[in-house]
Amino acid sequence: MVPEKEFVDLLNRHQNIIHKICHVYMDDPHDREDLFQEITLQAWKTFRHFRGDARFSTWLYRVALNTAITFFRKEKKKITAYTHQIPDDTGEPNPVEEQVQAMYRAISGLSKIDKALVMLYLEDYSYKEMAAMLGITVTNVGAKMNRIRTRLKQEIEKHYHPTN
Amino acid sequence: MELDAFKEELKKQVSGVEQRSASDITAILRNRTASLIRKLRQSLRVELAFTLAFTAVSVVILFIARNPAYRYFFMGAGIVSLVFAAFLIRLLQRADAGVPVKQYIEQLVVTISLYQRIYLWLGIALLPVSFVAAWWLANQDASGVVKQARWDVFGWLAAAMLAFGVLSFLFTRWYLRKMYGNYLDQLKKLVNEMEQE
């Protein structure tokens, strides 16, 4: 199979990985689009190194996280408000949606490395797999995850005020 | 809401995102990346092209010049260019994004730091070396093609070269810092953060 076609087929099947990372790392839809393109291009440029000894999804996760973590933009002058939009305002408060928004807000305040840990945790990777993917020790992953959980809990308690 | 409950919500949200078709993805592959690494690679490629062109010119002069002083000078310059070209190619081959995150960031830090250091110090070091070599070769020249260098102007030339060297050093250091400094600092912070428990 032609490498480009093979790559496009594989990426097409696993594109949700990139979408998830873009959602967690970028608030602005334009920035998300830029990051999607950047990850796709980096994956294509690195595809020749993919030897198939790991799952494509795991390899794509590594490339996507590496790209998202090292993707710095010049700070925008305007304050970028949190833009994960709540769906149509029907007048009825939606507690689940509010909690999701609070969680997004809390995650967006985390560092890029912590976001990577959260992403991998959300994808059901074990601490051992997370450690291998990030290149740190399992103990370090455990310590960081405990700290992240505590921080997220505090942030949500601080900012989430259910509307009755 | 705990992380586990959020996991399910995130899945739902992402499943609602418009999926790209294979042709959309193929179109993206024709684009250029916007990353700083691409800019670094691009400048490395331009420098490599110039270095190889200079090496080729040096080789041609080496063979056609009748004056030994020119031949020795361009032979030295050609060797330095070749070594620099090999270094640039090695830098271009670095940074595989498929490796673990910490390793990838460290690769970037090493690549950018090395590039900055070599760019700055090679440029500065070659200036006096070329000057002294040219002076010495001019004085060694017995063919009469190159006039015997006059020692009374040596001091003035050396002072001018020193001033140029200092200015060039300050400018290059400022330029490299402006181009890559902030990015490098941010990458180093990421590595430190990863190492802390």
General description of the model:
The complex is a heterodimer of chains A (164) and B (197). Chain A is mainly alpha-helical and 164 residues long. In chain A, 66% of the residues lie in helices and 0% in strands. Chain A is built from 8 helices and no strands. Chain A has helices spanning 3-13, 15-25, 29-46, 56-69, 95-108, 112-122, 127-134, 138-159. In chain A, helix 2 (15-25) packs across helix 6 and helix 5 packs across helix 8 (138-159). The longest helix of chain A has 22 residues, at 138-159. Chain A is globular and about 50 Å long. Chain B is elongated and about 85 Å long. Chain B has helices spanning 3-15, 22-29, 36-64, 68-92, 101-140, 151-195. By secondary structure, chain B is mostly helical. The mean pLDDT of chain B is 80. The two termini of chain B are 25 Å apart. At the A-B interface, helix 1, helix 2, helix 3, helix 4 and helix 5 of A face helix 1, helix 2, helix 5 and helix 6 of B.
Keywords:
heterodimer, A: 164 residues, 8 helices, 66% helix, globular, B: 197 residues, mainly alpha, 6 helices
Radius of gyration of chain A: 18 Å
| Helix/strand structural class of chain B | mainly alpha
Compressed to H and E, one letter per element, the order of chain B equals: HHHHHH
Which chain pair has the greatest contact?
A: A-B, 59 and 46 residues
Q: Can you summarize the main beta sheet of chain B?
A: none
How much β-strand is present in the residues of chain A?
Answer: under 5%
Tell me the helix content of chain B: over 70%
Q: What is the multimeric organization of the chains shown?
A: heterodimer
What series of H and E elements makes up the topology of chain A? HHHHHHHH
> How many individual helices of chain A?
8
In round numbers, the mean pLDDT of chain B is 80
Total beta strand runs of chain B? 0
